[in-house]
Amino acid sequence: MQSSTIGILGAGIVGLSAALHLQKAGYQVTLIDKELPGMGVSFGNAGLFADYACLPFSTFAMMRKMPAMLMDKNSPLSMQRSYLPSLMPYGWGFFKACFAQNYEQGKAALKSLQAIARQADQTLLDLTDGHHLIKSQGCLGLFSTEESFAAGQRGDLQERREQGVNLEFLSAEQVGELEPDLSGFHVGGVFYPDTRFTISPIELSRCYAQHFIANGGVILQDEVQAVVPGDNDVVVRLSDRVVEYDQVVVCAGVASKAILAPLGVKVPLVSERGYHLTLDTGAKSLSRPVGWLDKSVFLTPMDGGVRLAGTAEFAAVDAPLNPERTDVMLEHARVMLGEEPSIKSTWVGSRPSTPDSLPIIGPLAQHPRITVGFGHGHLGLTLGAVTGKLITESIQGREGSVDLKPFSAARFS
After folding, report:
1. In angstroms, rounded to a whole number, what is the distance separating the alpha carbons of residues 102 and 356?
2. In angstroms, rounded to a whole number, what is the distance separating the alpha carbons of residues 168 and 171?
3. Using CA atoms, how far apart are residues 367 and 231, in angstroms rounded to an integer?
4. pLDDT higher than 80, residue 82
5. N or C: which end of the chain has fewer CB within 10 A?
6. Distance between CA 206 and CA 43 in Å, rounded?
7. Average pLDDT of 209-233?
8. Residue from 101, 137, 264, 134 nearest 201 by CA
9. Helix (H, G, I), strand (E, B) or coil at 170
10. pLDDT grade, residue 1 (50/70/90)?
11. What residues form DSSP beta bridges with 134?
């Protein structure tokens, strides 16, 4: 059993996962966040444990599409003009990540995480008795034209199959058998039979937090002002107090960049905002998440309604919600369902995204008492548990289940 104290900055799904793994290993753990557990960006995800997500976004093909996408108000990609200067280091990193050798290394790194992600999830779900919040009905990704479907089969979907992802191609008729309440907007698509989803991301976070507290964990709702590493401890300055820990773990999403910058740690992390609408679909129902891949939106059946999630908006964290984004998404849902649903609630949050699509995980070379786990982009829920496992192994000084070199913050220096 360990006796040292650890402070974790960030109580989203990644921070909570790290807290549970570290607590299970015997450490005295404190979570610190200005929000309640799970109320940051983890609140708003599409609910998918996206086991099929093993390809980086950074490709030259994507780069060629970006200008036209940014000019099209109906595309899933948009940018706040005033945020452009903040994107320059990210853009340069994205360009470098597109080269074949870097892309292939990124693929291998993501595959290494996905290979043990499911078991890491299982460990935490068993530990917290959270299985009632998870459904195993698979996931559909649909195409609206034969051309896009064929291109997907030749491209990304073939790559995923080569990476070992279990997938099946379905006709429109086969899709209709699985989801009879969908309209005929599609020509068929891909089915991932092994993919799971949560019916409530916030309840999953609360489940983890409740177990953490019940087993002696401490949660401080406060804002981090500064982190000061020393030879024997790490001081964390909060808004109304100063706390000290033997080690600190930074899992603060987009805010991690500002926390680490004064320590000389520079990472090209950006705010990639995602939106969701909670919909009342009336008599229409879904059994599993359904994505319209041409439009980059997903419908996920959850407690309290169907969650419509998607888009990638590069904008400041505190920028106001853009109603044009939600209008476009609602139109996509109307097409998918064949009728217009009513909106029960609207949300926007900032994904912490890196240019090479890989999270930043592991100890800081210049500050060995600080370990990090952030930058998961679209895969915070998918890779949260495995990140917590890897952080724990690193702090214990054990040989890691995965080589952390591809995920090191030092790759950007």
Report:
1. 8
2. 10
3. 9
4. yes
5. N
6. 11
7. 97
8. 134
9. strand
10. very low
11. 198
State how far the Cα of 381 lies from the Cα of 121, in Å rounded to an integer: 10
Q: What is the full DSSP assignment across 98-135?
A: TSHHHHHHHHHHHHHHHHHHHHHHHHHHHHHT-GGGEE
Cα–Cα distance for residue pair 363/396, rounded to 1 Å: 11
pLDDT at 143 over 70: yes
Residue with tokens 């090209």: 268
DSSP string of 41-67, one letter each residue: GGGGS--EE-TT--S-S--HHHHHHHH
Instruction: For residue 413, name the pLDDT band (cuts at 50, 70, 90).
Output: confident
Residue 239 has pLDDT above 80, yes or no: yes
What span, in angstroms and rounded, lies between the C-alpha atoms of 173 and 228?
Answer: 60
Rounded Cα distance between 19 and 71, Å, is 43
Return mean pLDDT, the chain: 97
Report yes or no: 245 and 288 within 8 Å, Cβ to Cβ.
no
Nearest to 78 by CA among 270, 324, 399: 324
Which residues are registered as beta bridge partners of 247? 6
- Mean pLDDT within 263-290: 97
What mean pLDDT is predicted for residues 264-278? 97
Alpha helices in 142-255 (DSSP H): 146-154, 156-162, 172-178, 201-214
Angstrom distance (rounded) from CA 278 to CA 299 = 9
- pLDDT for 90-100, tens place per residue? 999 999 999 99
Residue 354: Cβ-neighbour burial (10 angstroms; 0-12, 13-18, 19+)? buried
